[in-house]
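Q: My labmate handed me this sequence with no annotations at all. I'd like to see what the chain might look like in three dimensions before we decide whether it's worth expressing. Could you predict it?
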Amino acid sequence: MKMYQKILVRAPNWIGDAVMAIPTLSALRARFPESRITLLAKPQVAALFEHHPVIDRLWVYESPGRHAGWMGLWRLVRSIREGEFDLAFLLQNAFEAALVTAAAGIPERIGYAADGRRFLLTSALDKKSAPLHQREAYLHLMQLVGSEGRFERSPYLVITEKERQSAADLLAAEGIDRWEPVIGLNPGAAYGSSKRWDPARFAAAADQLLERYPAKVVISGGPAEIAIAEEVRRKMRHPAVIVAGKTTVRMMMALIARCRLFITNDSGPMHIASALGSPVVAVFGPTNPDATSPAGADDLIVRNKVDCAPCTYRECPIDHRCMSGVSVEAVVAAAERKWASLGRRKVAVFLDRDGTINRDVGHMDALHKFSVIPGSVEAIARLNRRGISAIIVTNQSGVARGIFPEERVGEVHRHLQSLLAEAGAHLDGIYYCPHHPEIIPCGCRKPAMGMIERALSEHAVDLSGSYVVGDKPLDMGLARGGAKGVLVRTGHGEASLQEMAQSGKRPDHVADDLTAAVEWILEDLQRRGWIAE
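A: Here is what I predict for the chain of 533 residues:
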């Protein structure tokens, strides 16, 4: 099979189509690992592929802009000619894509024989031969170059840590903390009004979910969808944050990746969410899910099957029955199934250390002072056996005070892990704060959520199905975002219980010790349907 040094790929113009084309780009990279692959794309599509490993270079097709009109096209042709490409791989089906690459003198040009361009292609497939689903239709073109090697068949996108941080900062400015679950709403669809579910129903579905789950709602969309986003928020009883029209494509991607659940019309953002691994509930109407469904195996589609659908009209000429027949209850039910299925995989118990697992002797400045509270090791083993993450979050301000070196904290934790291992138990994570607020202000010292936030990012834990166990009010202060707080009477528990009663605050449960706490947690998880009996 012939090899190529330089390949030019013409990307589709729609964001959703471009995401569905990613497996084909992966296949090209696997087939030609040594080739230099350049992607020619419109600005919004090009933004999707920043930092993506399957391409070597992004080339932005600016129309409108410097590539508009015949003069602009000629300017693009000259630039492509200077690139000295061996192969043009045309994922876009327009006549123009074939014309430009032929005029640029690229010797081999492959794609579908669509839009009257067969004579401009050196190798072509009849569009009627393409598989129904768009992802498979793009991959079908690989037979023209030979599909060899293993490649990722599901679309995936790449977001940098800096972009994730920027998204977190934007949400924080709107009052949404890192640990809070986010439900994303995408009520728009660039294709046309026929693909849009009623904004009032988006609002009603969001309100019902907010009454059942501890989450915040973020409404996304492009500049043309600001009015739709505002209509959704106006019709909601609960508050929501609008980011429609306020973000770049890259920021939109980072925000979607942050979503615990993404409720959307059939649209580009739907495919982005699926490619980023965000749980999707998609409302389909005039389009065919057999052709454009998201790639996630667990993504859920809600639709009302009617005789006139799929019609692919941009605007419904009659009563929009395909979308008006999709009820709020159907979407909420799908969202609840999605939420519950994810939650069952990500439950954790966040454990205080001193006074909860081991006896509280003040500052643990010597290893010989460490002794576990009877039953604690077996309690942790019970969590392990049920697949529930056991994670320590502990304040260790003795380090900042100079009472003991930070190495002592690690020494104690290694000793604890050794004791647990002897009983067939383990801790899934250990986080500690070595700071003291009067010496080193920080965001990790309990009851601040810094240690919890780090655990959530590193262990994919669902906070809404998790628990915090400790002997002090500051431990119970971590019980946010749906997590429940269990106060143990060991350590400072009795005094803490009196203190909390005086302040009018109570934990979700009070247990004699960690053994009793874990017993109650397992029963509570069964009652809530998060684990089987």
